[in-house]
Amino acid sequence: MSLPISNVIRRLRRERDITQEELAAAVGVTYQSVSRWENGQAYPDMELIPKIAGFFNISTDILFGTDKESINTKLEAHYEKINKVQHDPEEFYQACKAAYDEFPKEYSFGIWLCRCYIENNTRPYEEHLDEIRAICKNIMDNCTDEDHRIEAMHMIAVAEDEEHLSAWLDMIPCWKSCKEVLLASRYSYRKNFEKCELHGQQNLLSFVGYIFYNSINPNDQNETAARFQLILKVIDIMRDTSTDVDAWLPMRAEFHLRLAGCYFFTEQYDIGYTELENAIDLYVKYAELPIDTILSYNNPLMNLLTDDKHCKPEDDTNDKGEYICFMAYENFAKTRLFDSVRNDERYKKQIDRLKPYLPK
Question: By the 8 A CB rule, do 224 and 262 touch?
């Protein structure tokens, strides 16, 4: 008669379309051993049980076929134990470790175990980095709770070494600012306050950009124009208005051009041409800056941030302003917003001012 674990291993392997060879390679045995387990002819060694459970991302209880009521009873016992000893760092660590080893899919246990290493300093996190990686990867790959996923990324951002950090940050499927938040946390924890401040400022800039570039109402160009006007006023508040030569220059040019398109679309031609001329003036000014010009944001909240002339993203080389002018010429000036003035000489005259700076 086959043992419950035999049926569970066979069922899980087939449900997930995994071969006996793949399972065997994952846990370090031969495929013949897996075959004997599934046929009830042999039983996995006890040290292999956590590996098998981890491979299928289940608890050892499920692997043994324990009923749901028993599993819930054990979970409650773990939670009760953890809550009881939370003020004793060593006992808290031991309780979290035991709970996560038995229930790797109960992601709270993994988060708390990582905190023992990183926040409570129960054990040096550097010595447990592989374990932290495994816990965080388990959460990122399998957990659907966004709070747990964000917490896992916070933990790995603090603990991971520089060589492997970018691979984790690339797993974040959302807005860039999240990476800056994580990096600010990392360097604050490591008491590298200069880098912490730098990433905090980059986070602020990313947040500002996110708000600005998500201010379009495609169903109401008048409302969008009002938003763009407000954005340009906000930028002027954030910069030193005594000069146009700063890191805000390309963004200001773009929003003046966007604003011109809104006015043309709603047949407000005079003000539309004023905004178009403002935009082209700024694009030309930017394009004529020397290649190595370093631009600041002229804001005490962003005093560590600078920007140089934009580079072509595809080859990472300086382009003397060609790329930004090309984007203006192609992606904005040729949209439907400009259809009503496409053949006007005044429009052509302004757009032609970009041509000397377009890629040859």
Answer: yes
How far is Cα 250 from Cα 247, in angstroms, rounded to an integer?
A: 7
Q: Provide the CA 189 distance to its chain's centre, in angstroms.
A: 20
Tens of pLDDT, residue by residue over 23-48, are: 999 889 998 888 888 888 888 888 88
pTM: 0.57
Report residue 65's pLDDT band, with 50, 70 and 90 as the boundaries. low
3-state secondary structure of 23: helix
Find the farthest-apart pair of alpha carbons in the chain and give their distance in angstroms, rounded.
90
User: In the beta sheet, which residues pair with residue 150?
Assistant: none
Residue 66 confidence (pLDDT): 64
- Residues 285 and 273: their CA atoms lie apart, in Å, by 18
Q: Is 172 helix (H, G, I), strand (E, B) or coil?
A: coil
Closest listed residue to residue 286, CA positions, set 273, 277, 295: 295
> What pLDDT, on the 0 to 100 scale, is given for residue 173?
57
Phi-psi map region of 240: left, alpha, beta (phi>0 left; psi -120 to 50 alpha) = beta
**Other beta carbons less than 10 A from residue 315's beta carbon:** 7
